[in-house]
Amino acid sequence: MITGTALAEPLFRLGWEEWVALPGLGLPAMKAKVDTGARTSALHAFDIEPFGPASRPKVRFAVHPIPGREDLSIPCSAEIVDRREVTSSNGDSEWRFVIRAEIEVGDRRWPIELTLTHRGGMAYRMLLGRQALGEDVVVSPGESFCQPRLSYDVYHTSEMRQVAPARVLRIAVLSREPHTYSTSRLVAEGEARGHVVEVIDTARCYMALDALAPEVHYDGTRLPRYDAIIPRIGASVTSYGTAVIRQFETVGTYCVNGSDGITASRDKLHAHQILARHRIGMPTTAFAASPKDTNNLISLVGGAPLIVKLLESTQGKGVVLAETKKAAESVISAFRGLKASFLVQHFIKEAAGEDIRCLVVGSKVVAAMKRTGAEGDFRSNLHQGGHADAVRITRAEREIAVKAARAFRLNLAGVDLLRSSDGPKVLEVNSSPGLEGIEKASGKNIAGLLYDEIEKRVRPLPVPKGRRRK
Predict the structure, then answer these.
(1) Which of 177, 196, 215, 334 has the highest CB neighbour count under 10 A?
(2) From CA 428, how far away is CA 371, in angstroms rounded?
């Protein structure tokens, strides 16, 4: 590095301020101060938080790339290469995380080390020290912007999402069963992509309710900020599990499935009311609280044979086929004697013990399988001895599955359909669909497709130009 103007034709000239880019961090334009008096380069960051395994520690942080524009925040992450004590020009010492990133100035691009520190109110979001400058660089202290100028406008364009790097994410899987196939696959797939994935037992979470700083705690410690939450909430902890999800929603964490959608999908009466409200085809269904209404209830669904179903049944449990009116009356009487809430439903005979599970991720059916019940069993659930095969679904089936998932505002849903004589009927919308059966039947990497959706959702959005936080 050469300082001054002694060379007539320098190989690479920098002024005391330059436009730079750190494309690997998703920062395509920033003004940097070139300071040969400083040994170390620094990036002004906030919300600095280490995470990940001790063998390969990472750090996540956020940057306001435009001075005075706190409404624009770019989340970043990088591997930690060192932790170093840095003394500022006024004599203050501070321990900082050190990362490595590629800097782009003009037509040049090279790797540098950066320390992370919060410097609120600084005019330059980056300081370029002498350690980052090569031997062929000439710094002209009296000049500005010797290299081509960039523009902050890049942060306000739709291309910003496409150029954002595949940064490391910190993701929590809410599950009480860490060793199940679905949870294990979510962890393995996330880690294979370089993300840090933690399994959290939903029942061991507790919440601090505060208007200014709501928090989620776990085993005596406040949980860190996560980029995304993947709920795997079991039926037995639906109420508490959705309360935990609401807390994460309150602090602004992206949750793959929201608390409202999970709650509604678990209550079969509420779920069918939502399907009816959105005019989504389903088997004729009826519900009544009074035992005096048994005969009307049976007639509303077209008489026997019919299905009697507990409102909170899962995996085919609590679902009974009554083949005659007398059998239906007996089952209904027995359920009422147990003070159990249930509904009755028209039995679609032509389905012949088969249903279609459509796996919806985002706004697309990514896989489908046909489930066939065990011999002599009208239920097609795999947990009840059924088996699954890949199936090609029709356009109508695809559309109704996506519409049902949207009705519950679920980004991951298993939508179960019956093929009836007058078109597909939605039987159920599952907010915690298992991955094992459908991955094996379809041969698709469903966990990977879910991470594609998560990565797309948590990338920074472009901010409208001139928008400021009120």
Answers:
(1) 196
(2) 14
Report if residue 328 sits inside a domain. Answer: no
CATH code for the domain in which residue 154 is found = 2.40.70.10
Q: What is the pLDDT of residues 372-397, one digit of tens each?
A: 866 655 555 555 556 788 999 999 99
Closest Cα to residue 444, out of 140, 219, 185?
185
**What would the two tokens of residue 7 be?**
């060379």
For the chain, report the end-to-end CA distance as a whole number of angstroms: 45
Residue 100 forms part of a structural domain: yes
CA 8 – CA 122 distance, rounded (Å): 34
Total tally of structural domains belonging to the chain: 1
Q: Is the pLDDT of residue 175 over 50?
A: yes
Q: Rounded to the nearest 5 degrees, what angle is found at the Cα of 286, between the Cα atoms of 283 and 291?
A: 150
Give dist(CA 389, CA 371) in Å, integer. Answer: 7
Q: Decide: 122 and 67 in contact? Cβ < 8 Å.
A: yes
Domain residues for 21?
Answer: 2-163
Q: Which of 128, 135, 313 is nearest to 238 (CA)?
A: 313
- At 314-354, the pLDDT tens digits run 655 778 888 888 888 888 888 887 777 788 888 888 777 78
d(Cα 234, Cα 48) in Å, to the nearest integer? 34
The token pair that represents 99 in the structure block? 């990362």
Shortest CA distance to 167 belongs to which of 448, 412, 445, 456?
A: 456
Please name the amino acid found at residue 264.
Answer: A
DSSP 461: P
- Residue count of the chain, please give it: 470
* pLDDT given for residue 207 in this prediction: 87
Q: Which residues contact 73 (CB under 8 A, 6 or more apart)?
A: 62, 63, 64, 460
Across-strand partners of 453? none
The answer to the question of residue 197 being in a domain is no
Q: How far is Cα 174 from Cα 423, in angstroms, rounded to an integer?
A: 36
Is residue 455 assigned to a domain? no
**Contact residues for 293 (Cβ-Cβ < 8 A; gap 6+):** none
